[in-house]
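This part of the workshop introduces the protein records we will be handling. Getting from the letters to the tokens is the skill we practise here. An example says more than a description, so a record of this kind follows:
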Amino acid sequence: MEYALLLSPSLPDETVAMLTHAARKLTDATFGNKVRVRGLLEITNVCRNNCLYCGLRRDNRNIRRYTLPDDAILSACQSAYATGFRTFVLQGGENPALTGERISLLVGRIHTEFPDAAITLSLGEWPDDALLSFRQAGASRYLLRHETHNQAHYGQLHPSDMSLDNRLRCIATLKRLGFQTGTGIMVGSPYQTTDHIIEDLHYMHSIQPEMIGIGPFIPNSATPFAKHPHGSIELTTRLISILRLMFPNANIPSTTALASLSPEGRNKGLAAGANVVMPNITPMDYRKDYSIYDNKAAYGSEAAEGLALLAAEVAEIGLELTTEKGDYK
């Protein structure tokens, strides 16, 4: 069936159910009933960029900015490791204070202390030599959502000093350097059309990412898109199913954005074919300040200290958590 038909709002409910079932069946065949757990550590909310949709944008004066000291980052990893986590996802804005050298040294410290853990970075765009230094220091995974593959649409979401070509160059470099590479989109972002999503699917097929992060767009009240409606959970989960069937071995998270929109959002994503969840391991005092969108879930079952609650919730749909590193197959 063609993408346009699968993405149609008039797709019959029984066809959607068949799609969901096929995707979850394939996920079970590949990963069993195990949901991989990654610890999400938001190391800075400072960003040089001014993306129109993001609460971390440079012009937002309504948030308290922070950058975690290296020792605090290492301490958060130590606590998460003791809990059983074997993957750390270091996420943050493009902070000029976090130079390539500093990140490489930090990654090296984490890798030296936890050689059996995977280090994933999600820190935006970098020159090729910096990405190489991160890889050499011990980072093995990198998530950089392309957001949209359509040039015109990209220009509607980003300021003129940002370039889709540069983002795609970074993603190509990550693949070339041997990172397990992740990309993805916001579902329902401003001005997005079905044709844009189809273009995104073709792009992802061309690069064969090992990780795919998609979630519904949620507005932040301090951005130009404050009044834009949030994206659809139904369309997001349908896309998760499509992506699972396209990429049987990919790690696909059921994102925080899904959980932020609905108490059942995370389980809906898992039922549709996702196989990863990312509880927050950021120090408690900073979580509310990483406000990329309004009302972001960062506590309870969305946090490391709520791991037992998260396990109970995913058990409701017959799944169980695993904190193992879980390399790409």
Observations:
- The CA atoms of residues 79 and 281 lie 9 Å apart.
- The radius of gyration is 18 Å.
- The mean pLDDT is 95.
- The first strand starts at residue 34 and ends at 37.
